[in-house]
Design brief:
heterodimer, A: about 575 residues, alpha+beta, Beta-Lactamase, 3 domains, about 20% strand, B: about 725 residues, 9-stranded mixed sheet, 6-stranded mixed sheet, 17 helices, about 25% strand
Chain lengths: ~575, ~725
């Protein structure tokens, strides 16, 4: 195919999925979509191949193709009509937990199907045990986690199926948001349909078909070329989740990566068995973050996202393990697992690609608070997002207050206080929490939230309160996090990172996130950079000495001779 | 009020008006002679250490050229990016920030979102204020303006005492929920003035009274940080002009495209952070009005970037936030500044943008060869092929008439590099490869313009494109054709549109305020009183700039369906309070459906913020008449590449200043002037008007070229 036409068509298809995503985000109701950006948009050809996925949530990367296959197992393509919208949220058909709704709309040109518009959107609540549908403790199986839909036609030739919508409405806590988001999903697919029809109208079916094949093949080739640059070999790492609910044992995540020529196999054998809780991952979800990591450390953003790029990556995970959970395991809280998949892969690759990896990062918190807002008398679900820093990087410190395993925005404190019965008392970096290293980790973040209403349900969701983010290549671990109720009061209570609690007016929940791990040996860090952190008030004089071997005063003035001596003595002792 | 504003009428009576726009590379000048109607333009290199030096030298050059003197100059209108440059180069004041206790790291943490999901090496921007100069203030307001924690003045006094030794030149104060109740912030401001009297103070509820603590704080910090340097710069400019005998009036262009006085802009310099590009948009709006066209796309393509702005009904679209000091021109990577500004979409697609091959297709930009070393054809050491190189190889640019012949271009060098670096890997010859580069960069712009127009619910096919900038006229016809746009205006002096735009800009004020309310009776009553308050403030500010002048004032509201996060801006109709709610609701529903395809009649609608904008009438200005009487019989042509004609064909080449009024030019053709080259495609028809503007009817695409009206874009702004 001639490169000029291909270039124009490819750019056009990427642009149309991104524009459709903008429409989804702008017309959505839930914070998870509007601010959390927890959605994605894909364009499939009529052979069910994923041609383009917009630059959205990495968590849906591997799952869209399987959702499309499942949709079309239940509905024959010949039975689909323009204006139809099908949805599903079954974890094993989709992306691994009930809040992720997929919607498929057929795209027509001259009465025949030429492709499919697909989007996946995280719903703020789908019913079940706790507000937000992300409870961990007390979940025995998925039937406690909310409404489950197998492929279902909700719009038929443009007309909503009101019976289905009524069933959904009756089974979720904030139906306005969910139904509003369903409409946003429809708005999004409509843009894909219209633009694709325009594109094909202009270039014709033959060129469109040829372009789809070319896009997939070229992307695969590029991905293989990137993988080929990695040294062949087998690399290994183990990391842990603290637990899967109060009073439970740690979960082991073990990975063996084998690079063989132009393909890579990621094998999770050795990981813990699936749990009786809301924390379990289906295979598509794990795959998504394997692909995300490989992409980050090879090509960055230069290789586009589509089915072709997924081809060179193979996965092995034992059925029944926590990384390949089988029905009817609960999985509502699995979003908290993504950071660990990236962390463990980064550690495995650090042996062979030290200049391309980052140290394990701070672990985010995604607690859900629900109940009745005393100001309005209406039910609410507050999906909170707290983000700490990156792990240390080859050429720079970990970025502060940004997620390394996904991409998300947060809602301003002032907006949240307008919308929900909460008051945020503090949102700041935690001094001394960063893992020391030649390039230190980003800091942990502290957030204090006062609850301004009675009988509220708080589902905590975070990790790294027991197993700190480790440093790599000589770096130190970051500080562990914790969650405490009424920390400043007479009677503070430590809360489980995955516990569910009832709170009342005036209760204050304080979250300390872990700090990112350090990269490289702390003694290799320039004294000036250590001093700068002291001046900024982010590093104590004491930790400067113990972790970095730098002797200085609180104004950051370094005693060079004492520092030389201390670093030399400590290096001798370490040998 | 400034002394010079008293002389506005006297200033306007003098013979000359001068507009000058200081850019990163060049300072552009335009002088209008009210006696002869002539327009003189000039260009010289900017002097970056002190931009006023180059500006004054250029004014001297220009007056020398027309034999005029400074005391005949009635007005000087200044467009500037000095504010943005102070931020980008981190050359502002030593600034302290006072924030509510518990939020000290606001400037470091910023927003968590990353501009690219797969780029782990990216960094957030460096805060303008180091952490040790961020001081927590013990106080707290609730979202509704009630006091949660009383301001601890004793503690604040001791914090400020400690700051005295730090040499603080400016202080920003941004307390939580200050937009709802400013009592604490006002008291903090008073204490700052008392204890740090030399420092200038910026209070967030005055600078940006909107909800959203990071954006409001960032805006306040930028204002404080640039204020002292901005004041010094304007003082020295005013002094220097006065020393040269200037007794007229100085106007500063703002980001909203309107003018203000130096005294006003020094108070809130964020309003003029980057005002040059806005003047180009004003120029496009003005030229559209002159031709009876209200719905336009201003398309301005220069050396490193292309900018587009939608103009509806003669009014440029405004954006409330823009970010300064972006990385890779990605929206959201810079420091957010909340101030109503012309809504410019900017992408890395200029003449200097570098072309390369990736994944077997051609990609262009955002990397740019800039002015140094510049494109290969400049012969100044550039080695990587650029858009300008491609345009030379394609015959679109005349190697012997670049900048009116002041610079000759190395066509062979450009051709060899394009053949080797772009053609060879793809199996294309030099012409095909150059065409691929031209097409790829045009497609990037096409997607950007589609974002501007479709995001606003506009079909680009209903718009007229106005081509500006040194490179805009070379790409405009192809771009219009790909977007389905039927008409392009190529204004005279398009190459220095910003400087010319300054001469017809009007004084303007935009005030924005958070106002959250449903569309019920108490809400609309409150709306009325808030609007009246803002209206009075706008009138006062306009009086400071141009006392007693006629003005038009518009009210706008940001609205959303309750529960959604994104807002749609709606004009507030002038009608009795009782009908206001219904009328607003109808406008909102209609606009919403136009943008997103559906309206939600059952959902509640609410207002989130309001803006009042006022503008006075612009100074009288006309482009000089077309002096060409008959075509000088130049029968020039050269080989120019058109894919629809299967490659290079002989193509007519005209000089704009030799085409008399009413001349018709059929594409394919090139029309050159000293600043740019207009390219017309086969099927296009252009007419030259009485002011040397070229108006083109654009033909339709017969074969698929770059893109299609129904494809979209990746550069949308949120």
């Amino acid at each position: 195919m001639d490169p000029l036409t291909l270039g124009v068509m490819w750019r056009g298809m990427v642009a149309l999925t991104n524009d459709a995503g903008t429409v989804l985000r702008r017309t959505a109701y839930s914070e998870a979509v509007r601010e959390g950006r927890d959605f994605s948009v894909g364009l499939f050809d009529r052979h069910e191949r994923m041609i383009v996925q917009g630059d959205f949530s990495p968590g849906h990367l591997g799952s869209m193709p399987s959702a499309v296959t499942n949709f079309l197992r239940y509905y024959d393509a010949e039975d689909l009509r323009p204006g139809d919208c099908l949805i599903l949220n079954d974890p094993w058909m989709g992306s691994g937990h009930l809040p992720d709704f997929f919607m498929l709309s057929p795209c027509f040109v001259d009465g025949t199907i030429v492709g499919y518009a697909v989007n996946c959107t995280h719903m703020i609540d789908v019913g079940g045990a706790a507000p937000g549908s992300q409870q961990v403790e007390g979940i025995n199986d998925q039937f406690q986690e909310g409404l489950r839909l197998w492929p279902t036609r909700v719009w038929s030739e443009g007309q909503p199926n009101k019976e289905i919508l009524r069933i959904i409405e009756a089974n979720v806590r904030v139906p306005d948001k969910l139904l509003g988001d369903l409409m946003a999903m429809r708005n999004c697919n409509r843009i894909v349909e219209q633009r694709l029809a325009g594109l094909i109208g202009k270039y014709g079916m033959d060129r469109y078909d040829a372009a789809c094949t070319e896009i997939l093949d070229r992307s695969e080739t590029a991905m293989r070329a990137a993988i080929s640059e990695m040294p062949d070999g087998t690399y290994h790492a183990v990391d842990y989740f603290d637990d899967y609910g109060p009073g439970t044992e740690p979960l082991r995540i073990e990975v063996t990566v084998t690079v063989d020529g132009s393909s890579v196999t990621i094998d999770f054998t050795g990981s813990s068995p699936q749990t009786r809780s809301g924390i379990n991952a289906v295979l598509t979800y794990v795959r998504a973050f394997c692909y995300y990591t490989v992409k980050c450390i090879t090509s960055g953003g230069t290789i586009p996202q589509n089915g072709g790029c997924l081809r060179p990556i193979n996965y092995v995970a034992e059925p029944g393990s926590v990384v390949n959970a089988q029905p009817p395991a609960g999985s509502g809280a699995r979003a908290i697992m993504q950071q660990r998949f990236v962390d463990v892969l980064m550690q495995a690759f650090s042996e062979v690609l030290p200049d391309r990896v980052i140290a394990p990062s701070s672990h985010w918190a995604n607690p859900n608070l629900g109940g009745f807002d005393p100001r309005t008398g209406r039910r609410f679900v507050h999906y909170d997002i707290i983000i700490g820093g990156f792990g240390g990087r080859p050429a720079s410190d970990g970025m502060e207050a940004a997620p390394s395993a996904f991409n998300i925005d947060a809602i301003p404190v002032e907006v949240n206080e307008n919308s929900y019965p909460v008051r945020v008392e503090r949102l700041e970096l935690i001094p001394d929490s960063a893992g020391a290293g030649r390039n230190r980790g980003g800091h942990g973040v502290r957030k204090d939230v006062t609850v301004l209403g009675e009988s509220m349900t708080f589902s905590n969701l975070t990790d790294r309160q027991r197993f700190a983010p480790p440093g790599i290549l000589g770096g130190e671990a970051g500080a562990v996090g914790r969650t405490v109720l009424n920390a400043g009061g007479a009677d503070p209570v430590v809360l489980g990172s995955k516990g569910t609690y009832q709170l009342d007016h005036g209760d204050v929940v304080t979250t300390w996130l872990s700090g990112g791990g350090g990269y490289g040996h702390p003694f290799d860090r320039e004294v000036e950079r250590v001093s700068a952190d002291v001046v900024a008030g982010l590093l104590s004089v004491r930790k400067a000495a113990t972790s970095y071997g730098v002797v200085l005063d609180s104004a950051g003035v370094v005693d060079q001779a004492a520092t030389r001596d201390l670093r030399a003595a400590r290096r001798r002792a370490q040998r | 009020m400034t002394p010079e504003s008293h002389e506005a009428s006297a200033g306007a009576r003098k013979r000359y008006r001068i507009g000058f726009d200081i850019g990163g590379t060049f300072t552009d000048f335009a002088l209008h002679d009210s006696q002869t109607g002539e327009l003189h333009v000039w260009k010289r290199l900017s002097t970056n250490t002190d931009p006023s030096v180059g500006a004054l030298a250029g004014i001297d050059d220009l007056l020398g050229l027309v034999g005029g003197s400074m005391d005949e100059v009635g007005q000087v209108v200044h467009g500037t990016t000095i504010g943005a440059n102070i931020v980008i180069e981190r050359k502002g004041a030593v600034t302290a920030l006072l924030v509510t206790d518990g939020f000290r790291d606001l400037l470091i943490m910023q927003r968590p979102a990353r501009y690219s999901t797969y780029d782990l090496w990216f960094d957030k921007h460096e805060p303008l204020i180091p952490r040790h100069l961020v001081v927590p203030v013990r106080e707290r307001m609730a979202y509704d303006g009630t006091v949660v924690r009383e301001l601890d003045e004793t503690d604040l006094r001791s914090s400020l005492e400690e700051l005295r030794a730090a040499g603080i030149e400016a202080v920003a104060v941004s307390l939580l929920h200050s937009y709802a109740a400013n009592d604490h912030e006002t008291r903090v401001g008073k204490l700052v003035s008392e204890l740090l009297p030399e420092a200038s103070t910026s209070l967030s509820h005055e600078v940006a009274p909107i909800t959203g603590e990071y954006e409001r704080t960032s805006t306040t910090v930028v204002n404080a940080y640039i204020q002292p340097a901005f004041r010094r710069y304007l003082d020295s400019l005013e002094r220097a002009l006065a020393e040269r005998g200037f007794t007229g009036q100085i106007f500063i262009n703002q980001g909203n495209g309107g003018l203000t006085t130096p005294a006003e802009v020094v108070h809130l310099p964020i309003r003029a952070l980057e005002s040059g590009p806005a003047a180009g948009v004003s120029m496009a709006a003005w030229i559209g009005r002159a031709h009876g066209r209200g719905d336009l796309v201003a398309f301005d393509m220069g050396g490193t970037t292309a900018k587009a702005c939608l103009i509806e009904d003669g009014e440029p679209k405004m954006e409330r936030v823009f970010d300064v000091d972006q990385t890779l021109m990605r929206v959201g990577t810079g420091l957010p500044v909340v101030t109503p500004s012309v809504d410019l979409i900017e992408i890395g697609a200029g003449g200097g943008s570098i072309a390369r091959v990736g994944l077997g297709i051609i990609e262009v930009g955002p990397e740019s060869a800039g002015a140094e070393p510049g494109p290969i054809c400049y012969g100044r050491g550039g080695t990587r092929p650029t858009v300008t190189d491609a345009n030379v190889v394609l015959g679109y640019l005349n190697p012997d008439f670049f900048l009116g012949g002041r610079m000759s271009l190395d066509v062979d060098g450009a051709r060899e590099a394009i053949a080797a670096q772009v053609g060879a890997p793809l199996g294309l010859d030099a012409g095909e490869a150059a065409w691929g580069v031209h097409e790829a960069v045009t497609a990037n712009m096409e997607h950007a313009i589609r974002a501007v127009s479709i995001e606003r619910g506009r079909d680009p096919r209903d718009l007229t494109l106005v081509a500006l900038g040194g490179a805009g006229p070379t790409h405009a016809a192809r771009l219009a054709r790909n977007l389905g746009i039927g008409e392009v205006i190529f204004p005279a002096a398009a190459g220095i549109a910003s400087a010319v735009g300054l001469l017809q800009a009007a004084p303007r004020v935009d005030l924005i305020r958070t106002f959250v309310s449903p569309l019920d009776e108490p809400g609309t009553a409150r709306l009325g009183s808030e609007l009246a308050e803002l209206d009075a403030a706008v009138n006062q500010l306009l009086d400071n700039v141009t006392p007693g002048a006629e003005r038009s004032i518009t009210y706008r509201a940001d609205m959303q369906y309750a529960g959604q996060g994104h807002v749609v801006e709606v004009e507030i109709p002038r009608c009795p309070t009782g009908e206001l709610a219904g009328a607003l609701r109808e406008r909102f529903d209609t606009d919403y459906a136009a943008m997103y395809g559906y309206r939600y009649p059952d959902a509640q609608a609410q207002i989130t913020s309001i803006t009042v904008a006022g503008s006075a009438a612009p100074a009288a200005f006309e482009l000089p008449p077309n002096a060409a009487t008959e075509t000088r019989g130049r029968d020039e042509s050269r080989h120019v590449y058109f894919p629809e004609l299967s490659g290079y064909v002989r193509c007519a080449v005209h000089r704009r200043d030799e085409l008399p009024t009413g001349t018709q030019v059929e594409g394919p053709a090139v029309i050159e002037d000293g600043q740019c080259a207009i390219l017309l495609l086969p099927g296009d028809t252009a007419t030259v008007d009485g002011h040397r503007n070229v108006l083109a009817r654009i033909g339709r695409n017969s074969a698929p070229a770059a893109g299609d009206p129904t494809t979209g874009t990746t550069t949308g702004r949120d």
